[in-house]
Amino acid sequence: MKLSYRWVIVAAGALMTCVAIGAMFSLAIFLEPMSLDTGWSRAGISSAMTLNFLVMGLGGFAWGTIYDRVGARPVVFAGALLLGLALVLASRTGSLIVFQLTYGVLVGLAASAFFAPMIALTTAWFDTNRSLAVSLVSAGMGVAPMTISPFARWLITAYDWRTAMFDIGVMAWVLLLPVAFLVRQPPAAAAAADGTPAAVTDDPGLSVGQALRSPQFLVLGMTFFACCAAHSGPIFHMVSYAMACGVAPMAAVSIYSVEGLAGLGGRLLYG
User: Fold this and answer.
1) For residue 198, is it within any domain?
2) b/e string for 136-162 if b means 16 or more Cβ within 10 A?
3) Distance between CA 248 and CA 15 in Å, rounded?
4) CATH number at residue 157
5) What is the 8-class DSSP label of residue 142?
6) In sequence order, which residues have a C-beta less than 8 Å from that of residue 37 and are 6 or more positions away?
7) Number of structural domains in the chain
8) Is 195 contained in some domain?
9) Residue 200 lies in a domain
10) The pTM is what?
11) Domain carrying residue 167
12) Rg (CA), the chain
């Protein structure tokens, strides 16, 4: 296996995070047309996004545990299947509570199957240029508002919100399922799985409990929580607010896309 294959892993990870996070955050584009069509309150629809964040955070632990046991490919393949299914089912829901559970729980669980496992896999593939590689994978989240969101707005304008959400679910299957087969463990991990003795080390590493209680984990966890708590609300409601101010729908989405562009630049710059 050529060493350059590691960049295929980076490309696959970037695409997966782009599609998964883009599909999840596209709810901001659906908020206004869904509310007008169904009569559901904006608060009720927005609560699905709150569930997304909570489930995605908890799901990362579950998927990470599965990744440690079976590797990345089964995890991302399952995530791709679940993401498309969740969006297709959510597009056909007739009640707010079913939509909240379908979109809020299933989409959040599916989205969490990509970021942490692909970051861990990318880190394992790279000895050099590791920061750049991880930044490129995470940059998929910055690209998402620049791609999935305008596409969702175009579909809503051309058809309706249910057709748009259904089509994005099918698109998730079409894009992510084939890419999942490109995901491979690094040569060292593959050799160990085949029975080749791994290098002996005197450091057994931290247990799960020790890692969760470590100052580094607590600081990082609280930092990510504060970051998301501060920006998730304004970002999510930006499109609806812009439309309420008289901005055309696609122009309102472009504001959302610029925010994604800024996030993309920051990830590449500091990576």
Assistant:
1) no
2) bbbbbbbbbbbebbbbbbebbeeeebb
3) 29
4) 1.20.1250.20
5) H
6) 160, 161
7) 1
8) no
9) no
10) 0.82
11) 5-186+207-270
12) 19
